[in-house]
Amino acid sequence: MTEMRPPLDGIRVVDLTRVLAGPFCTMLLGDMGAEVIKVEGHEGDPVRRQGTLKDGLSWYFAAFNRNKKSVVIDLKTDAGKELLARLIETADVLVDNYRPGVLAKMGFGAERLAELNPQLVTCNVNGYGSTGPYVDRPAFDFVVQAMSGFMSVTGAEDQPPMRTGLPITDLVAGLYAAFGVVNALHARRHNGRGQHVDSAMANGILSLMAYLASEHFATGQLPPRTGNDHPLVAPYGLFTASDGEVAVAPSNDTVLRRFLRAIELEHLLDDPRFSTNEARFPRRAELRALIDARMRTESQAHWIEVLNRAGVPSGKVQDLAEVFADPQVRAQEMVIDVARAGAAPVRMLGFPVKLSQTPCTVRLPAPELGEHDDEILGPLRRA
Amino acid sequence: MTEMRPPLDGIRVVDLTRVLAGPFCTMLLGDMGAEVIKVEGHEGDPVRRQGTLKDGLSWYFAAFNRNKKSVVIDLKTDAGKELLARLIETADVLVDNYRPGVLAKMGFGAERLAELNPQLVTCNVNGYGSTGPYVDRPAFDFVVQAMSGFMSVTGAEDQPPMRTGLPITDLVAGLYAAFGVVNALHARRHNGRGQHVDSAMANGILSLMAYLASEHFATGQLPPRTGNDHPLVAPYGLFTASDGEVAVAPSNDTVLRRFLRAIELEHLLDDPRFSTNEARFPRRAELRALIDARMRTESQAHWIEVLNRAGVPSGKVQDLAEVFADPQVRAQEMVIDVARAGAAPVRMLGFPVKLSQTPCTVRLPAPELGEHDDEILGPLRRA
Prior knowledge:
2 copies of one chain form a homodimer.
Chain A: E1 12-15, H1 21-31, E2 35-40, E3 53-54, E4 57-58, H2 59-64, E5 68-72, H3 78-89, E6 93-96, H4 102-105, H5 110-116, E7 121-126, H6 141-147, H7 168-191, E8 196-200, H8 201-206, H9 210-219, E9 237-241, E10 244-248, H10 253-262, H11 277-280, H12 284-295, H13 300-309, E11 314-315, H14 320-325, H15 327-331, E12 335-340, E13 343-349, E14 353-355, H16 373-382
Parallel strand pairs in A: 1-2, 1-6, 2-5, 6-7, 7-8
Antiparallel strand pairs in A: 3-4, 9-10, 10-11, 12-13
Helix pairs in contact in A: 1-7
């Protein structure tokens, strides 16, 4: 039997992206086995100089550019453009995160690309999409969080809308772009033709509005901001153990009964003041005080163990040091160390999707600028 | 030339998922052209009864179950399990979001599934992954937001960690699961064999920690919570126009100069108190007051227009009503209406990834419970 090969083995990706959303997309493709060729100018991706450098290497750059090769091409020159054209002829995928239309202005419009390589899947990761009134606007994660409604549903009830510190709109756009590219590659089995994939930060984050969007469409009402509490269900949220808070999410009556039984307060459900969610919700402060009084008698670890065993979702609010020390995170290999000649290994996040037969691996550490010029560009120059 | 067909045309997905993360995964596969067969018990997916019902239909259910067929199989009976086995023989993909190991206990372990159908791609969307100490824990979005570090980097500086109101960990896990499945389908071209895909809510959200994780690994320090401000750069964040706030993200010196020029405060960069980020950051309140004084002279719309034209990312903090009225969101067709016989059309979110030749469409509205029993199960019963 033929041996299993990584999903994107044999797929060559030409990667014109910079900074974050685009490089995250091509990293996901590289992790799945694609040969990703990162094309940089003489100055290199700015992220090479961002964040903390250790032994001359940005760990931020290292994390987002594993499983990639680097070549230097000056796309401001005709010779550079000609070289890119030759490279595109050898590729399956071309990804850029310029603003829509910029690549065409550089001489690589859709028509030219299809001429160069009719099988090519092209992908643009952008801010607001490639049509519409905002097509030329520059985008940045914080602004997209503001415009998309994400901030409007995040934060405390009596406080203003709140962003998250994660560059969530970049990363979701990069993930959707990678999903689109693999779909377009798979579609080639029908007739061998490539097509264009458009992934916008604004569209990606908006697609995650989920039932908040459905409820708004159905009722016309706006979802309230409710901090860490559930807008409709009580008890729910953070409760107080002897040594800190415990997050508990009893999302329905079955799980609520398990919760109250586990903390020996099941009798509350016989009390008309607490027997239905309708009765409980206006008395949620009172209910919380009763639960906290009981939970303060034991530690976080105790309750998290007891509640999960009883089938009640529960855990601690962890900071990143606690997260990366968490035995589950370690068991899932979500922290990996990538060896580096003559320097300490580079620590980075592991692989979020686990494939049983072709698991993702780090085949290549993040490349030095132009490290693969000879290997990749040499044959094209000689041709 | 053969015509283009949707990427997953001809792919049959048997869908055992409920509620959110799993159904989002299979919706993404259905949107890309797969035939998704939702297997429900006699009671149906609980989401059929959740959220606001209009003319008897939950719009939340409708939004997450477009492009699916529904069959009723009672998996508690031997006859039901036998029927599922027959259905699996006809499928390319099997997705479930039971806790790891539950499907095996139901009689569908990896070995049996491979016997039934060696080409089958299987996928489990779960909370914490299928190995490690938390494998049997029940998971829920709020708890995973707490444990993953997401909350620790969200919220105001002087306030506790904050969740987002979006079920972000469910949806990211569903998206990664769909990405994994399409990769595993594409990998079959090498030798025709399926494999297992594991997508955990905890791993998915953790993978989005991005440079926050890199910086923590490189320095051992914890990222601060900084509300809507940038942890290192000033000016940045929300500024005050005559009729409300404007989000502005001048992420580097070039964009900052454009910003200050556009609001006619470029001279500040010649003032030693504001000429470098190092000087500006401790004086950010003072700087904000100067900027607000200028921006209060004009409206939000004015500044958003002026700033974007100048190449400065800028926009309003919008609530969902404003988002869905936004001309860009409309131009991107991110709000769609799905016709419904004898009732008002169902409004839902559009498609986040745009493919040029095979755009996603709603081929099927969300199914009635068991609507496709005859079509799908009939041939299996007669065989």
